[in-house]
Amino acid sequence: MRLQDAIARAMAGNPTLVAEQAQLQAIQARAQREALPTPYTVGGDLENVVGTGALSGLKSAETTLRIGRVLELGGKRQARESLGAAEIDQQQNQAESARIALASRTAERFIEVIADQHRLAFAQDRVKQAERTRREVATWVKAARNPESDLRAAEIAVTEAELEREHAEHELLSARMTLASSWGSLDPDFGEALGNFDALPAVEPFESLASKLPMTPEQRASLFEARTIEARRRVAEAAAKPDITVNLGVRRLDALDDQGLVLSVSMPLGNRKRSAYSVAEADAQLAALNARRDAQRYERHQELFERYQELGHARLEADSLRKSMIPKAEQAVAFTRRGFEAGNFSFLALTQAQRTLFELRERSTEALARYHTLLVEVERLTAVAQDATP
After folding, report:
1. Fewer beta carbons below 10 Å: N end or C end of the chain?
2. In a 3-state reduction of DSSP, which class is residue 69?
3. Among 91, 365, 52, which Cα is nearest to 225's?
4. Helix (H) or strand (E) holding 227
5. How buried is residue 298: exposed, middle or buried, by Cβ count under 10 Å (0-12/13-18/19+)?
6. What tens digit of pLDDT does each residue of 45-101 get?
7. pLDDT tens per residue, range 138-155
8. Beta bridge partners of 329
């Protein structure tokens, strides 16, 4: 399985994206509901019944049937429509951020699987080398060229190598399980992870990467939130103008056997003061949001700079290990082994040369994994949103 396959599976099966899509549908439904006009109301009254004297029974009953509606003033419906559109845009940006975060997390987990596969291969090679050395030492001990203690040390080295291999095996299994969870699977139902682990892709100049920061979903989230707060502010401003409730009905007077129209109009009081408080709340929220946005911009720029510097160091370390240090360590092992076989070097010297080589290989794997992981983090920080600008 390649990285593209892993990301595609995560995008198709991760529950987080399903949740974000469901949340978007909920917000869209709410926006449609809030954009509806005020409903009509139907009601009725029955008066002057079951009383005393002339009002006993139903002879003097007055029956009223009416239909009414709240007439919104001040552009309240349009303000709610704007708020609904802003909330939809905000959730769409949140869904885009979730997709980018999932792709980055899946890529990091895939890199860890690749690295653990390399670690397991090195551990298996270490076991082979340790067993080979033990057989050679056993031969020389039997020939009385080496002391018995060298054989015991060689056997300990084999056991240590086998323990390292076992550790590498369960680390790889854990990494595979973690990767499978990216697409909601409890079983690592894939084969070997394939990728050119040794290739180190080039990185854009820092200035080019930094220029993308204002266009990322994370940075744009505050802009969408500001639009939502501004829309709520317009709703609050519109609420300052009171609505009028109008009811029109027909009243029947049984005592006179006549009917007549009934018209009632009502209007609430105190709206302006409540609206002022809501507007003040929105203004304070906008001020706080702008301050947080400025702080976030500086933090993200600094974070990107740190990742960029770490990338350069990881690349330098990986190149130095692969091109210089590991080849020299391999030459040292070959040279020491020939000397050991000729009786010129001790078992301790051979063991030390082998240990140095394996440690450098492990360090190289760590440097390569760190480079690829940092590259994923840089791509996440500078990922440009795909939907329209706010």
Report:
1. C
2. strand
3. 91
4. helix 217-238
5. exposed
6. 888 877 666 666 677 788 889 999 999 988 999 999 999 999 999 999 999 999 999
7. 988 888 888 888 899 999
8. none
Cα distance between residue 195 and residue 1, in whole Å? 9
- CA neighbor of 63 nearest in space, from 257, 261, 260, 251: 251
Beta partners for residue 263, in sequence order: 248
Return the closest-CA partner of residue 232 out of 84, 51, 47.
Answer: 84
Separation CA 303–CA 300 (nearest Å): 5
Average pLDDT, the chain: 90
Within the chain, how many helices (H) and strands (E) appear? 9, 4
Which tokens sit at 113? 């699987």
CA distance 368 to 319: 9
d(CA 150, CA 356): 19
**Distance of alpha carbon 184 from alpha carbon 153, whole angstroms:** 47
Q: Say if residues 384 and 212 touch (Cβ distance below 8 Å).
A: yes
* Contact present, 1 and 194 (Cβ < 8 Å): yes
Instruction: Please provide the DSSP assignment of 229-267 as one string.
Output: HHHHHHHHHHTTSPPEEEEEEEEEETTTTEEEEEEEEE-
Rounded to 5°, the CA angle 380-182-110 comes to 65
End-to-end Cα spacing for the chain: 38
Q: Which two tokens stand for residue 326?
A: 């590991």
Most confident by average pLDDT, 137-146, 234-243, 250-259: 234-243
Map residue 43 onto helix, strand or coil.
strand
